[in-house]
Amino acid sequence: MKSKIFLAALFAASLFGTTACSDFLNEDPKGKLVPGGYFTSQDELNMSLVSLFTKVTDSQSYTNMMYPQWQGDDITANPGSNKQACAQLDAFSPSADNKGVVAAWNKHYDIIHEANFIIDNAQRTPTSKAELEVALGQAYFWRAYAYFYLVRVFGPLPINLHNEDDHGTAELSSVEKVYEQILADLMKADSYNLPATYKGEPRQMFGADVYVTQQAVKSTLAAVYMAMAGYPLNKGTEYYAKAAEAAEAVIQGQSRVSITRSSKQNGRKSTLWATITASKRFSVSTTLPTALGATTLNSPVRCFLKALVDGGTHGVKLLFGSVCLMVLVRLLLMILSS
């Protein structure tokens, strides 16, 4: 019996003796995607973007994340039921565990986390330069967007660009430093010269671009410059001019219909342009919604107003005719319902 035990022990020892300890720590997962072995194909690059857009969707999929933007508006004045968090924000006194504040923070840092993963690792993908730039453009844009949202709600922020786990010890960066990072990310996205439109799902769905376009980058740059021009940075005239330049690039680049009128300006004729059809920044779909809302910078209404301003008496007549038509329709409905 003792000899059998001795032989068994000797056999076990021989197994451990012929295998290095480190071999037991080398992971070779089967049927599971892990960060170190990811980005080995275009499909995996596409999957990383789906993950990013899923986080963007999560930041817009229910109302909690919007609570901080509602404060002071009395949108939900009912203090009962589940509206206490709204009431706190209406009074500008949210608690640390206010569900709207917590959700706004967490959901937008989730976007940053996914964007960081793509920015740090996508270069490993064996794909074309054009496809890589599209992917990186999306990541830089959405990271900028998330920080742009957060800095306007919370002010100074911890900046994390590489998904480093700091265990909550990172120092807060000033509002100006956060804006510098936002501009750097948007400039990087702009340098990739993203397409003005896309073809095929999921990049374009139901006739609308889901992936971020070059117009989206430039129009968001305009919004950031506008924010920096005013409170709290108060950079003033120079940044208002930068905003106008970025917005003009979108308008000129996306013109569909020109409204031309001759006028004397310093002895020269001028041609005034207005975009009548909407030039999309990016759109919202049920599966891959993009943020900054479903509206566009150059919407038909916005462009109609531009035509009104630039169009002189013709624009006034057009506006007056539209108002008269709406009044007549309203009167007709009243008569039919009486």
Share of residues in strands: under 5%
Fraction of helical residues: 40-55%
The radius of gyration is: 28 Å
Mean pLDDT: 76
The strand count comes to: 4
Tell me the distance between the termini.
Answer: 106 Å
Morphology call: globular
- Main sheet, how many strands, which sense, barrel? 2 strands, antiparallel
Run of helices and strands? HHHHHHHEEHHEEHH
How are the strands ordered across the major sheet? 1-2
Class inferred from helices and paired strands: mainly alpha
Count of helix runs = 11
Low-confidence stretches: 255-320
Could you characterize the architecture of this molecule?
- This protein has eleven helices and four strands.
- The chain is 53% helix and 2% strand.
- By secondary structure, the chain is mostly helical.
- The model is unreliable at 255-320 (pLDDT under 50).
- The chain has a two-stranded antiparallel sheet. Strands 3-4 form a two-stranded antiparallel sheet.
Describe this structure in a few short sentences:
This protein is an all-alpha fold and 338 residues long.
List keywords for this structure.
53% helix
What layout of secondary structure does this protein have?
Layout: H1 2-17, H2 42-58, H3 67-70, H4 84-90, H5 99-121, H6 129-154, H7 175-191, E1 204-205, E2 208-209, H8 214-229, H9 237-253, E3 264-265, E4 268-269, H10 300-310, H11 312-337
Antiparallel strand pairs: 1-2, 3-4
Helix pairs in contact: 2-5, 2-6, 5-6, 6-7, 7-8, 8-9, 10-11
